[in-house]
Write a structure and sequence with these properties.
The protein has helices at 38-43, 66-74, 106-110, 119-122, 126-140, 148-152, 155-164, 171-183, 187-209, 217-226, 232-263, 265-273, 278-288, 319-322, 357-374, and strands at 51-54, 60-63, 79-80, 145-147, 293-298, 302-304, 307-309, 314-318, 379-380, 387-389, 395-398, 400-402. The chain is α+β, with helices and mostly antiparallel strands. The chain has a single domain (20-407), classed as Orthogonal Bundle (Cytochrome p450), CATH 1.10.630. Strand 6 and strand 7 form a beta hairpin. Helix 11 (232-263) packs parallel to helix 15. The longest helix is centred in the middle third of the chain and has 32 residues, at 232-263.
């Protein structure tokens, strides 16, 4: 099982219908200043038109405002999810299910995993989440330093593997492949990583195919395959979709949480003094440090906010930029754990809203509680520079931290 030939990521000529004033020289994998502050690098787009076109990565539109992104996500007829990342898939690449399936088929497919990812199903797992995170943090605390990305961001993948009943020996390989898929602009490397991921998921699903029916995450996918709803190949790409979401999003969010708190002792102190703030803090930090750069495929010629989109064009939805829209949030670049009615687009909206949010939210909240319980005072390592990155997912890719070793608590 493999993907089709790799496609290039060219800088294209500007289409004749694109006004010159809407053109920006913006490569979303490498926006200027991304290494220092990924979100600030993107925030500069708010200084220009609400909708812009970049010739990079095959050419695509970028929406910069929250309300516009939400409207597009709800209009599934005009803006299809058949392509949901930039650049477009190569020929013969199967869709990830259900993310790249439009209504009406999308709803029944999405419902397959609703029960194993429901709040009711996730709640009993919270002690496991807490113990796994606390164990890793207790191991780090006495050292007085760590490089957070390499030494901690494998914990969310471990948690997902634990929840899904997957063999944990595959975590390093799985994380490496997902990192390539979401962060590199090298389309050939991404294609190879997708192929390897598909092969791994096919092998893992065989374990469920060989055992009695179950109602766990992969069990319900295999059950639909046995019922004829999914083909064996579709089962793989359904499992792959769930799997990629479980491995990347929370890990990237945690890297931003820690990066922010390392630079803002006043916010750390609020959470240390009042752990009950952890839930609202997680939501506010998600708003301020969103992750995903999604896309939609234009299905027909349409005029949106006075801009003409042509069939076959891609429209990028940088959900993290929606969370920084001053038209939607007062002082959006500031973090306020007491912000009223925190709402953010981190998990999308409409029919494609992420069903994994019920698992992600307790992971983020519990992390804040456990990290600050054991390591309440930490800063960036003054001798080693953090590095940020942009891609399908925003993240920190290098995050050196230091703290007084006496702050480690057993």
């Amino acid at each position: 099982m493999s993907y089709g030939a790799a496609t290039a990521n060219p800088v294209v000529d500007i289409p004749p219908h694109v006004p010159a004033e809407l053109v920006v020289d913006f490569n979303y994998f490498h926006p200027p200043g991304v290494e220092d502050d990924p979100h600030q690098a993107w925030k500069r787009l708010h200084d220009g038109p609400d909708i812009v076109f970049t010739p990079h990565n095959g050419g695509h539109w970028i929406l910069t405002r929250s309300d516009d992104m939400f409207e597009v996500m709800h209009d599934t007829e005009t803006f299809s999810s058949v392509e949901f990342t930039v650049p477009k898939r190569g020929a013969g690449v199967p869709p990830l299910i259900p993310n790249q399936i439009d209504p009406p088929r999308h709803g029944p497919l999405k419902s397959i995993v609703l029960r194993p990812l429901s709040p009711k199903a996730v709640k009993p797992v919270e002690p496991v989440i807490r113990e796994l995170m606390a164990t890793r943090i207790r191991r780090l605390a006495p050292r007085g330093r760590c490089e957070f990305v390499s030494e901690f961001t494998d914990v969310p993948p471990e948690l997902f593997f634990e929840y899904a009943g997957l063999p944990k020996e595959h975590v390093p390989r799985a994380k490496r492949l997902v990192d390539i898929i979401v962060h590199t602009q090298d389309e050939d490397a991404r294609r190879k990583a997708r192929n390897e991921s598909a092969q791994l998921l096919s092998e893992l699903l065989d374990q469920w195919r060989a055992q009695p029916p179950s109602d766990d995450l992969f069990g319900v996918i295999v059950a639909q395959e046995r019922a004829g709803v999914l083909t064996p190949e579709e089962s793989v790409y359904y499992a792959m979709n769930v799997y990629h979401g479980g491995l990347e999003t929370v890990a990237s969010a945690l890297s931003f949480f820690v990066w922010y708190l390392a630079r803002h002792p006043e916010h750390r102190r609020q959470l240390v003094d009042d752990p009950d703030l952890s839930m609202s803090a997680a939501e506010e930090l998600l708003r301020r440090h969103g992750i995903l750069n999604l896309a939609r495929l234009v299905t027909c010629s349409t005029t949106f906010r006075g801009v003409t989109f042509k069939p076959g064009e891609l429209v990028m939805l940088p959900l993290h930029l929606a969370g920084l829209d001053e038209r939607k949030y007062d002082s959006p670049m500031e973090v306020d754990f007491h912000r009223e009615a925190i709402a953010h687009p981190m998990f999308g909206t409409g029919v494609h809203r992420c069903v994994g949010s019920h698992l992600a939210r307790p992971e983020l909240r519990i992390f804040l509680e456990e990290w600050l319980k054991h390591i309440p005072d930490f800063t960036l390592d003054p001798e080693d520079k953090p590095i940020g990155a942009s891609g399908i997912a925003m993240s920190m890719i290098h995050l050196p931290l230091v703290w007084p070793s006496a702050s480690g608590r057993s």
